[in-house]
Amino acid sequence: MLSAKGHTLTHVEAQGATCTADGNSEYWYCTECGKYFSDSAATAEISLSDTVLSATGHSMTHYEAVDVSCTTDGNIEYWYCANCDKYFSDEDGNSEITDTSTITIAATGHNYVDTVTDPTCTEQGYTTHTCDNCGESYVDTYVEATGHSYGTPVWTWESDYSTCTATFTCDKGDDTQILTATVTSATTDATCTTDGEIAYTSTVTFNGNEYTDTQTEAIAATGHTYGEPVFTWNGNTCTATFTCTECDDTQTVDATVTSKNFFGMVTRTAEVTFEGLTYTDTKTTGRSLLTIMADYTSVNNAIAKANALNASDYSNFADVTAAINAVQWNLNVLNQSTVNGYAEAIETAIANLKAAELTEETVTINEPIEDTNTETEPDDIEVDDTDEETNPTTGIALAMLPMAIALAATVANKRG
Q1: What does pTM read for this prediction?
Q2: What is the tens place of the pLDDT at every residue in 398-411?
Q3: Are 222 and 191 in contact (CB under 8 A)?
Protein backbone atom coordinates (compact mmCIF):
# COMPACT_ATOMS: atom_id res chain seq x y z
CA MET A 1 0.00 0.00 0.00
CA LEU A 2 1.23 3.42 -1.09
CA SER A 3 1.49 6.20 1.39
CA ALA A 4 -0.74 9.34 0.91
CA LYS A 5 1.07 12.01 -1.01
CA GLY A 6 -0.50 14.95 0.90
CA HIS A 7 -2.16 18.09 -0.50
CA THR A 8 -0.48 20.49 -2.77
CA LEU A 9 -2.26 23.66 -1.84
CA THR A 10 -2.47 26.95 -3.79
CA HIS A 11 -3.45 29.92 -1.67
CA VAL A 12 -6.07 32.30 -3.22
CA GLU A 13 -6.24 35.68 -1.58
CA ALA A 14 -9.65 37.01 -0.59
CA GLN A 15 -10.98 39.38 -3.30
CA GLY A 16 -13.79 41.67 -2.35
CA ALA A 17 -16.82 41.79 -4.56
CA THR A 18 -17.36 45.00 -6.63
CA CYS A 19 -20.51 46.63 -7.96
CA THR A 20 -20.21 44.72 -11.18
CA ALA A 21 -17.86 41.75 -10.44
CA ASP A 22 -18.06 38.91 -7.93
CA GLY A 23 -15.39 38.64 -5.32
CA ASN A 24 -14.18 35.60 -3.32
CA SER A 25 -13.28 34.70 0.20
CA GLU A 26 -9.80 33.50 1.06
CA TYR A 27 -9.32 29.78 0.24
CA TRP A 28 -6.85 27.19 -0.73
CA TYR A 29 -7.01 24.91 -3.70
CA CYS A 30 -5.31 21.57 -3.88
CA THR A 31 -3.91 20.92 -7.24
CA GLU A 32 -3.58 17.19 -6.45
CA CYS A 33 -7.14 16.45 -5.46
CA GLY A 34 -8.90 19.55 -6.90
CA LYS A 35 -10.53 20.38 -3.64
CA TYR A 36 -11.05 23.69 -1.95
CA PHE A 37 -10.28 24.39 1.62
CA SER A 38 -11.00 27.40 3.82
CA ASP A 39 -7.84 26.89 5.83
CA SER A 40 -4.24 26.34 5.02
CA ALA A 41 -4.21 23.01 6.87
CA ALA A 42 -6.78 21.75 4.41
CA THR A 43 -8.93 20.50 7.22
CA ALA A 44 -12.09 22.43 6.25
CA GLU A 45 -13.09 21.48 2.80
CA ILE A 46 -15.43 23.88 0.98
CA SER A 47 -16.88 24.09 -2.42
CA LEU A 48 -15.79 26.66 -4.92
CA SER A 49 -19.23 28.33 -4.74
CA ASP A 50 -18.66 28.77 -1.06
CA THR A 51 -15.81 31.11 -1.94
CA VAL A 52 -17.82 33.32 -4.26
CA LEU A 53 -18.82 36.77 -3.00
CA SER A 54 -21.61 38.11 -5.29
CA ALA A 55 -21.24 41.56 -7.00
CA THR A 56 -22.92 44.26 -4.91
CA GLY A 57 -24.38 46.35 -7.82
CA HIS A 58 -23.99 50.13 -8.09
CA SER A 59 -25.46 52.54 -5.56
CA MET A 60 -25.95 55.46 -7.90
CA THR A 61 -26.61 59.13 -7.03
CA HIS A 62 -27.81 61.23 -9.99
CA TYR A 63 -26.44 64.73 -10.54
CA GLU A 64 -28.26 67.05 -12.94
CA ALA A 65 -26.28 69.12 -15.38
CA VAL A 66 -25.64 72.64 -14.04
CA ASP A 67 -25.05 75.48 -16.45
CA VAL A 68 -21.84 77.27 -16.02
CA SER A 69 -22.00 81.00 -15.20
CA CYS A 70 -19.51 83.79 -15.26
CA THR A 71 -18.78 83.34 -11.55
CA THR A 72 -19.76 79.72 -10.66
CA ASP A 73 -18.68 76.39 -12.09
CA GLY A 74 -21.13 74.17 -13.81
CA ASN A 75 -21.10 70.43 -14.45
CA ILE A 76 -22.28 67.85 -16.91
CA GLU A 77 -25.01 65.38 -16.00
CA TYR A 78 -23.48 62.33 -14.21
CA TRP A 79 -24.06 59.46 -11.77
CA TYR A 80 -21.84 58.66 -8.80
CA CYS A 81 -21.65 55.21 -7.26
CA ALA A 82 -20.90 55.31 -3.55
CA ASN A 83 -20.02 51.62 -3.61
CA CYS A 84 -17.29 51.75 -6.14
CA ASP A 85 -16.57 55.47 -5.89
CA LYS A 86 -16.82 55.82 -9.64
CA TYR A 87 -18.52 58.31 -11.90
CA PHE A 88 -20.65 57.37 -14.82
CA SER A 89 -22.30 59.27 -17.68
CA ASP A 90 -25.26 56.87 -17.67
CA GLU A 91 -27.66 55.63 -15.10
CA ASP A 92 -26.75 51.94 -15.66
CA GLY A 93 -23.11 52.55 -14.95
CA ASN A 94 -21.97 51.32 -18.31
CA SER A 95 -19.97 54.39 -19.23
CA GLU A 96 -17.47 55.21 -16.56
CA ILE A 97 -16.03 58.68 -16.49
CA THR A 98 -12.45 57.95 -15.90
CA ASP A 99 -11.33 61.59 -16.16
CA THR A 100 -13.36 63.25 -13.47
CA SER A 101 -11.99 66.66 -14.43
CA THR A 102 -14.41 66.62 -17.35
CA ILE A 103 -17.37 66.53 -14.98
CA THR A 104 -16.86 70.08 -13.75
CA ILE A 105 -17.12 73.02 -16.17
CA ALA A 106 -15.12 75.93 -14.91
CA ALA A 107 -16.79 79.38 -14.53
CA THR A 108 -16.36 81.38 -17.72
CA GLY A 109 -15.75 84.73 -16.08
CA HIS A 110 -17.53 87.93 -17.27
CA ASN A 111 -17.28 89.13 -20.87
CA TYR A 112 -18.09 92.82 -20.65
CA VAL A 113 -19.26 94.88 -23.62
CA ASP A 114 -18.91 98.63 -23.15
CA THR A 115 -21.72 101.06 -24.05
CA VAL A 116 -20.92 104.76 -23.90
CA THR A 117 -23.81 107.11 -23.11
CA ASP A 118 -22.86 110.63 -24.23
CA PRO A 119 -23.66 113.48 -21.91
CA THR A 120 -26.65 115.65 -22.82
CA CYS A 121 -27.27 119.27 -22.14
CA THR A 122 -28.72 118.46 -18.73
CA GLU A 123 -27.62 114.86 -17.96
CA GLN A 124 -24.08 113.52 -17.38
CA GLY A 125 -22.65 110.86 -19.64
CA TYR A 126 -21.21 107.49 -18.55
CA THR A 127 -19.96 104.10 -19.72
CA THR A 128 -21.98 100.97 -19.02
CA HIS A 129 -20.11 97.66 -18.90
CA THR A 130 -22.49 94.75 -19.55
CA CYS A 131 -21.52 91.09 -19.52
CA ASP A 132 -22.86 89.48 -22.66
CA ASN A 133 -22.94 86.11 -20.86
CA CYS A 134 -24.96 86.85 -17.77
CA GLY A 135 -26.13 90.44 -18.26
CA GLU A 136 -24.48 91.66 -15.08
CA SER A 137 -23.42 95.29 -15.51
CA TYR A 138 -21.82 98.22 -13.80
CA VAL A 139 -21.34 101.91 -14.70
CA ASP A 140 -18.27 104.11 -14.52
CA THR A 141 -16.42 106.87 -16.43
CA TYR A 142 -18.90 109.67 -15.79
CA VAL A 143 -18.79 112.84 -17.98
CA GLU A 144 -20.40 116.08 -16.88
CA ALA A 145 -23.50 117.46 -18.73
CA THR A 146 -22.55 119.77 -21.59
CA GLY A 147 -25.24 122.40 -21.08
CA HIS A 148 -27.44 123.70 -23.93
CA SER A 149 -25.87 125.05 -27.10
CA TYR A 150 -28.31 127.28 -28.97
CA GLY A 151 -27.82 128.31 -32.59
CA THR A 152 -29.18 131.37 -34.34
CA PRO A 153 -32.87 132.01 -33.69
CA VAL A 154 -35.77 131.42 -36.04
CA TRP A 155 -37.79 134.61 -36.36
CA THR A 156 -41.58 134.56 -36.62
CA TRP A 157 -43.25 137.81 -37.69
CA GLU A 158 -46.87 138.83 -37.60
CA SER A 159 -48.22 139.61 -41.06
CA ASP A 160 -48.36 143.33 -40.25
CA TYR A 161 -44.87 143.29 -38.68
CA SER A 162 -46.30 144.58 -35.39
CA THR A 163 -44.82 141.77 -33.28
CA CYS A 164 -42.13 139.14 -33.63
CA THR A 165 -40.79 136.16 -31.67
CA ALA A 166 -37.35 134.54 -31.70
CA THR A 167 -37.15 130.77 -31.23
CA PHE A 168 -33.85 129.36 -29.96
CA THR A 169 -33.44 125.59 -30.33
CA CYS A 170 -30.61 123.64 -28.71
CA ASP A 171 -28.31 121.99 -31.24
CA LYS A 172 -29.14 118.64 -29.67
CA GLY A 173 -32.85 119.30 -30.13
CA ASP A 174 -33.72 118.75 -26.49
CA ASP A 175 -34.80 122.28 -25.58
CA THR A 176 -36.57 125.26 -27.17
CA GLN A 177 -36.79 128.82 -25.87
CA ILE A 178 -39.24 131.34 -27.39
CA LEU A 179 -38.69 135.04 -26.69
CA THR A 180 -40.84 138.04 -27.63
CA ALA A 181 -38.73 140.58 -29.50
CA THR A 182 -38.75 144.36 -29.29
CA VAL A 183 -39.82 145.76 -32.69
CA THR A 184 -38.78 149.17 -34.02
CA SER A 185 -39.31 150.68 -37.46
CA ALA A 186 -37.66 153.25 -39.71
CA THR A 187 -39.34 154.70 -42.81
CA THR A 188 -37.67 155.80 -46.03
CA ASP A 189 -40.24 157.84 -47.91
CA ALA A 190 -41.01 157.01 -51.49
CA THR A 191 -40.37 159.63 -54.15
CA CYS A 192 -42.11 160.14 -57.43
CA THR A 193 -39.87 157.65 -59.18
CA THR A 194 -38.23 155.62 -56.41
CA ASP A 195 -39.85 153.14 -54.06
CA GLY A 196 -39.54 153.76 -50.36
CA GLU A 197 -39.65 151.20 -47.57
CA ILE A 198 -40.42 150.61 -43.93
CA ALA A 199 -37.64 148.66 -42.22
CA TYR A 200 -38.83 146.70 -39.17
CA THR A 201 -36.09 145.55 -36.77
CA SER A 202 -36.71 143.00 -34.02
CA THR A 203 -34.24 142.67 -31.13
CA VAL A 204 -33.85 140.05 -28.37
CA THR A 205 -31.16 139.40 -25.76
CA PHE A 206 -30.51 135.74 -24.95
CA ASN A 207 -27.74 134.22 -22.84
CA GLY A 208 -25.96 137.57 -22.82
CA ASN A 209 -25.99 137.97 -26.60
CA GLU A 210 -28.10 140.35 -28.70
CA TYR A 211 -29.79 139.11 -31.84
CA THR A 212 -31.61 141.17 -34.49
CA ASP A 213 -33.65 140.51 -37.59
CA THR A 214 -34.90 143.02 -40.17
CA GLN A 215 -37.85 142.79 -42.52
CA THR A 216 -38.80 145.44 -45.07
CA GLU A 217 -42.14 146.51 -46.44
CA ALA A 218 -42.05 148.31 -49.79
CA ILE A 219 -43.73 151.66 -50.31
CA ALA A 220 -44.53 152.12 -53.98
CA ALA A 221 -43.21 155.18 -55.75
CA THR A 222 -45.86 157.89 -55.61
CA GLY A 223 -45.61 158.86 -59.26
CA HIS A 224 -45.51 162.47 -60.41
CA THR A 225 -48.29 164.88 -59.51
CA TYR A 226 -48.48 167.45 -62.24
CA GLY A 227 -50.30 170.73 -61.89
CA GLU A 228 -51.94 172.80 -64.59
CA PRO A 229 -49.73 173.23 -67.64
CA VAL A 230 -48.01 176.40 -68.73
CA PHE A 231 -48.73 177.03 -72.41
CA THR A 232 -46.02 178.67 -74.48
CA TRP A 233 -46.98 180.08 -77.88
CA ASN A 234 -44.44 180.47 -80.64
CA GLY A 235 -46.24 181.99 -83.57
CA ASN A 236 -48.88 179.52 -84.60
CA THR A 237 -47.42 176.61 -82.60
CA CYS A 238 -47.72 175.94 -78.91
CA THR A 239 -46.27 173.67 -76.24
CA ALA A 240 -47.62 172.78 -72.80
CA THR A 241 -45.19 172.31 -69.93
CA PHE A 242 -46.32 170.23 -66.93
CA THR A 243 -44.34 170.56 -63.69
CA CYS A 244 -44.53 168.00 -60.86
CA THR A 245 -45.59 169.63 -57.62
CA GLU A 246 -43.40 167.25 -55.63
CA CYS A 247 -40.07 167.04 -57.45
CA ASP A 248 -40.13 169.75 -60.12
CA ASP A 249 -39.93 167.23 -62.93
CA THR A 250 -41.13 168.80 -66.16
CA GLN A 251 -42.78 167.30 -69.20
CA THR A 252 -43.22 169.39 -72.35
CA VAL A 253 -45.86 168.29 -74.80
CA ASP A 254 -46.49 169.68 -78.29
CA ALA A 255 -50.05 170.91 -78.52
CA THR A 256 -52.44 170.40 -81.39
CA VAL A 257 -53.43 173.88 -82.62
CA THR A 258 -56.72 174.66 -84.39
CA SER A 259 -57.92 178.14 -85.46
CA LYS A 260 -61.18 179.98 -86.21
CA ASN A 261 -61.49 183.27 -88.11
CA PHE A 262 -64.41 185.41 -87.06
CA PHE A 263 -64.57 188.43 -89.33
CA GLY A 264 -60.85 189.01 -89.12
CA MET A 265 -60.36 188.07 -85.46
CA VAL A 266 -58.45 184.74 -85.33
CA THR A 267 -58.85 182.54 -82.28
CA ARG A 268 -56.34 179.72 -81.97
CA THR A 269 -56.94 176.82 -79.57
CA ALA A 270 -54.06 174.67 -78.34
CA GLU A 271 -55.05 171.22 -77.01
CA VAL A 272 -52.94 168.57 -75.29
CA THR A 273 -53.85 165.28 -73.67
CA PHE A 274 -51.60 164.34 -70.75
CA GLU A 275 -52.08 161.45 -68.35
CA GLY A 276 -55.64 160.95 -69.53
CA LEU A 277 -56.72 164.56 -69.11
CA THR A 278 -57.23 167.19 -71.82
CA TYR A 279 -56.02 170.76 -71.39
CA THR A 280 -56.65 173.75 -73.68
CA ASP A 281 -55.42 177.30 -74.09
CA THR A 282 -56.59 180.00 -76.52
CA LYS A 283 -54.90 182.90 -78.21
CA THR A 284 -56.74 185.62 -80.14
CA THR A 285 -55.06 187.87 -82.74
CA GLY A 286 -56.30 190.48 -85.21
CA ARG A 287 -59.41 192.63 -84.88
CA SER A 288 -62.94 191.57 -85.67
CA LEU A 289 -64.79 193.50 -88.33
CA LEU A 290 -67.58 193.74 -85.80
CA THR A 291 -65.46 196.20 -83.85
CA ILE A 292 -64.62 198.41 -86.89
CA MET A 293 -67.07 201.26 -87.25
CA ALA A 294 -68.83 201.88 -90.54
CA ASP A 295 -67.86 204.99 -92.57
CA TYR A 296 -70.39 207.72 -91.85
CA THR A 297 -68.69 210.30 -94.17
CA SER A 298 -71.54 210.35 -96.70
CA VAL A 299 -74.07 210.68 -93.87
CA ASN A 300 -72.13 213.58 -92.34
CA ASN A 301 -71.86 215.25 -95.74
CA ALA A 302 -75.60 214.91 -96.32
CA ILE A 303 -76.32 216.36 -92.87
CA ALA A 304 -73.92 219.21 -93.53
CA LYS A 305 -75.76 219.93 -96.73
CA ALA A 306 -79.07 219.97 -94.83
CA ASN A 307 -77.61 222.26 -92.19
CA ALA A 308 -76.68 224.73 -94.91
CA LEU A 309 -80.36 225.11 -95.83
CA ASN A 310 -82.98 227.32 -94.17
CA ALA A 311 -85.67 225.01 -93.02
CA SER A 312 -88.32 227.72 -93.21
CA ASP A 313 -87.70 228.06 -96.90
CA TYR A 314 -89.20 224.67 -97.51
CA SER A 315 -92.60 223.35 -96.87
CA ASN A 316 -91.49 219.76 -96.40
CA PHE A 317 -88.20 220.21 -94.60
CA ALA A 318 -89.59 217.91 -91.95
CA ASP A 319 -88.82 215.03 -94.31
CA VAL A 320 -85.14 215.97 -94.16
CA THR A 321 -85.30 216.16 -90.38
CA ALA A 322 -87.00 212.76 -90.23
CA ALA A 323 -84.36 211.22 -92.50
CA ILE A 324 -81.61 212.63 -90.26
CA ASN A 325 -83.31 211.40 -87.09
CA ALA A 326 -83.64 207.90 -88.59
CA VAL A 327 -79.86 207.51 -88.68
CA GLN A 328 -78.59 204.75 -86.30
CA TRP A 329 -75.13 205.60 -85.24
CA ASN A 330 -72.19 203.35 -84.20
CA LEU A 331 -72.91 200.57 -86.68
CA ASN A 332 -69.92 198.44 -87.70
CA VAL A 333 -68.45 198.15 -91.15
CA LEU A 334 -70.58 195.10 -91.93
CA ASN A 335 -73.57 197.46 -91.91
CA GLN A 336 -71.93 199.91 -94.30
CA SER A 337 -74.72 199.55 -96.85
CA THR A 338 -77.26 200.53 -94.21
CA VAL A 339 -75.19 203.60 -93.31
CA ASN A 340 -74.95 204.50 -96.98
CA GLY A 341 -78.75 204.11 -97.15
CA TYR A 342 -79.10 206.73 -94.41
CA ALA A 343 -77.04 209.13 -96.52
CA GLU A 344 -79.19 208.34 -99.58
CA ALA A 345 -82.39 208.97 -97.62
CA ILE A 346 -81.15 212.39 -96.45
CA GLU A 347 -79.96 213.30 -99.94
CA THR A 348 -83.32 212.18 -101.36
CA ALA A 349 -85.23 214.22 -98.82
CA ILE A 350 -83.12 217.29 -99.68
CA ALA A 351 -83.64 216.69 -103.38
CA ASN A 352 -87.41 216.54 -102.86
CA LEU A 353 -87.63 219.79 -100.86
CA LYS A 354 -90.41 222.14 -101.91
CA ALA A 355 -90.13 225.90 -101.57
CA ALA A 356 -92.46 227.49 -99.03
CA GLU A 357 -94.88 230.31 -100.07
CA LEU A 358 -93.54 233.79 -99.03
CA THR A 359 -95.60 235.91 -96.63
CA GLU A 360 -95.14 239.33 -95.07
CA GLU A 361 -94.29 237.67 -91.83
CA THR A 362 -90.75 237.70 -90.70
CA VAL A 363 -89.00 234.57 -91.78
CA THR A 364 -87.28 232.83 -88.94
CA ILE A 365 -84.02 231.22 -89.86
CA ASN A 366 -83.75 227.74 -88.35
CA GLU A 367 -80.71 226.86 -86.42
CA PRO A 368 -78.45 224.46 -88.29
CA ILE A 369 -79.27 220.83 -87.70
CA GLU A 370 -76.77 219.46 -85.27
CA ASP A 371 -74.66 216.56 -86.42
CA THR A 372 -75.27 214.06 -83.68
CA ASN A 373 -72.63 211.73 -84.99
CA THR A 374 -69.96 211.97 -82.36
CA GLU A 375 -68.22 208.93 -83.69
CA THR A 376 -64.71 209.58 -84.88
CA GLU A 377 -63.18 208.07 -87.87
CA PRO A 378 -62.51 204.34 -87.43
CA ASP A 379 -59.37 203.52 -85.59
CA ASP A 380 -56.49 202.12 -87.53
CA ILE A 381 -56.73 198.37 -87.69
CA GLU A 382 -53.98 196.56 -85.85
CA VAL A 383 -52.70 193.80 -88.05
CA ASP A 384 -50.57 190.94 -86.74
CA ASP A 385 -48.07 190.49 -89.56
CA THR A 386 -47.26 187.02 -88.37
CA ASP A 387 -50.92 186.02 -88.35
CA GLU A 388 -51.47 187.54 -91.78
CA GLU A 389 -48.65 185.51 -93.23
CA THR A 390 -49.38 182.28 -91.40
CA ASN A 391 -53.20 182.45 -91.49
CA PRO A 392 -54.42 183.39 -94.99
CA THR A 393 -57.99 183.66 -93.71
CA THR A 394 -57.10 186.59 -91.50
CA GLY A 395 -55.10 188.30 -94.24
CA ILE A 396 -57.94 187.96 -96.72
CA ALA A 397 -60.48 189.34 -94.26
CA LEU A 398 -58.39 192.41 -93.57
CA ALA A 399 -57.60 192.91 -97.24
CA MET A 400 -61.31 192.88 -98.06
CA LEU A 401 -62.14 195.63 -95.54
CA PRO A 402 -61.31 198.61 -97.79
CA MET A 403 -63.00 196.83 -100.68
CA ALA A 404 -66.20 196.49 -98.63
CA ILE A 405 -66.10 200.19 -97.73
CA ALA A 406 -65.45 201.24 -101.31
CA LEU A 407 -68.26 199.02 -102.57
CA ALA A 408 -70.68 200.58 -100.09
CA ALA A 409 -69.67 204.07 -101.21
CA THR A 410 -70.13 203.17 -104.88
CA VAL A 411 -73.61 201.86 -104.21
CA ALA A 412 -74.49 205.06 -102.37
CA ASN A 413 -73.24 207.25 -105.19
CA LYS A 414 -75.24 205.32 -107.74
CA ARG A 415 -78.38 205.71 -105.67
CA GLY A 416 -77.71 209.44 -105.31
Answers
A1: 0.42
A2: 444 444 444 444 43
A3: yes
